[in-house]
Amino acid sequence: MWRRAARRGAVVAGPLHHTWRRSLHFRVVAITLVTSSLLVSSFAYLVATQSTNILLDRTRNAALKQLQVDTDYAAEQLRAFNQAYDQQVQTSLRNIASYLSRGGPEQGGAIVALTASKQPYLRTAQSFDVSPLISDDLAHQVAVDSRVSDQIRTHDFGAGPTKYLVTGSPVPTGFGPIELYYIVPLTTEDQTAGQIRTMVLLTGAALVILLGVLSALVTRLVVRPVRVAARTAQRLSAGLLDQRMAVRGEDDLALLAASFNQMATNLQRQIVRLEEMSRLQRRFTSDVSHELRTPLTTVRMAADLIFAERDEFDPAVARAAELLQAELDRFEGLLTDLLEISRFDAGFAMLDAEPTDLVPVVRRVVERLGGVSARAGVPIEVSLPETPVIAEVDPRRVERILRNLVGNAVEHGEGRPVSVALGADDSAVAVTVRDRGIGLRPGEEKLVFNRFWRADPSRARQTGGTGLGLSISLEDARLHGGWLEAWGAPGQGAQFRLTLPVRAGDRLTSSPLRLVPPDALPPNAIEVRPTTLEVSA
């Protein structure tokens, strides 16, 4: 039962918790209602309690005054009797009780009883059966302790439970003290106290509702401009730079709207200026790259002719021809990379995806870099599945990514083996390239994809790279909707992981290969997804 109640409570509290977290308006109104309810409830309880006590004290004082008058009257009437067993004493007690009751509660009087606890010869004289209303404690205080006492009793005489104020006082007589009890029903006081409580509760409820409405209206005046500002900011972030807030009045909210509009105008001006500068820069890069193609072709033809005849030249001239040929190759690669980068920047790069087996793609990249790895003394270890790994990718771009990753690993391998692994699951394929060189310092895994960034500027390149390879690889991975991530640690080398979706257009959620190599983890460590540069579509 408790679990069922807890589940129902969770079902009810779920939407409220969601609204509480997302709506400032709801939070302010709810806090106002709860706080005002507590305050009004405390005030209502205090007023009702004090009102009831005042009514009860007034009734008690009146009853005690009347009790004193009745006590004096009864003592005066019984002063002449010296013997308790005199028949006239009993008759006088009945007459006194009847006279003092003044017709009873029905005629505006009270209930009066005369008892003689110490006189066994005398019977109780009463205008009504009051034995259920006189408790033993009260009787002891009046008869034994000879004190004037009172208490409130509740009893049902057939018309429903009714409260009574029972007061008692000893009456001195010539034959010994007797007890006089003056009993007043509190029906009128109860009704008055109930009306006061009802009035206070209704007034408190109306006050709470009024406070809730006022807080809702006041909060709406403040929250509405904030919501308008949030929507305007969202439109600005979506590229609608002409969006502005309406300025009404001259208060603080109007100042907020005016300041927001001024900020939006300045941002629009800066963004337009930066976009224009970026457009000019991209066009300049593209135009320069294209324009350099023609003289490069001419220089290439002349260099190829000189390089082909280098054996007939002086050794120094032959060495210059070889250097010229190598630098022309690098310059041509740089132009190609600049053109590719300009296409990415302009948003003109297109993905030509087709079902491709990645196993031969990886093998082909490793074979083509075999000569470079042999010259650098860095062996390449390959771990490939025995079955084909099919994915919808652009094979040209994937091969370029892997060529850059493996080439960088060989260059930074420090003579140690480079490991290449291919893995796949139902939704993604991944390739990891691991070197065991000097590694990356903390924070550099976020910089390796920057254009022309080098971990060690004084280090000579072994593969003739242009400094744009990883940047282009990052854009190629993004074009596939995949991830290109880096991990590194000083003295433990670095590892790059390329993760691509099996089906073009799918969203990646995980990778079949881990980013941090198992041999780089401390013993008994649990791998946590590292905060490395991750790019997704």
From TrEMBL:
The chain crosses the membrane at residues 28-48, 199-223. InterPro entries: HAMP_dom, HATPase_C_sf, HATPase_dom, His_kinase_dom, HisK_dim/P_dom, HisK_dim/P_sf, MtrAB_MtrB, Sig_transdc_His_kin-like_C. It is found in: Cell membrane. Keywords: ATP-binding, Cell membrane, Kinase, Membrane, Nucleotide-binding, Phosphoprotein, Transferase, Transmembrane, Transmembrane helix, Two-component regulatory system. Its main location: membrane. It is a multi-pass membrane protein. The keyword ATP-binding applies. It catalyses: ATP + protein L-histidine = ADP + protein N-phospho-L-histidine. It holds the Pfam family HisKA. GO terms for molecular function: kinase activity. Its EC number is 2.7.13.3. Residues 220-272 form the HAMP domain. Residues 287-504 form the Histidine kinase domain. This is Sensor histidine kinase MtrB. It comes from Phytohabitans maris.
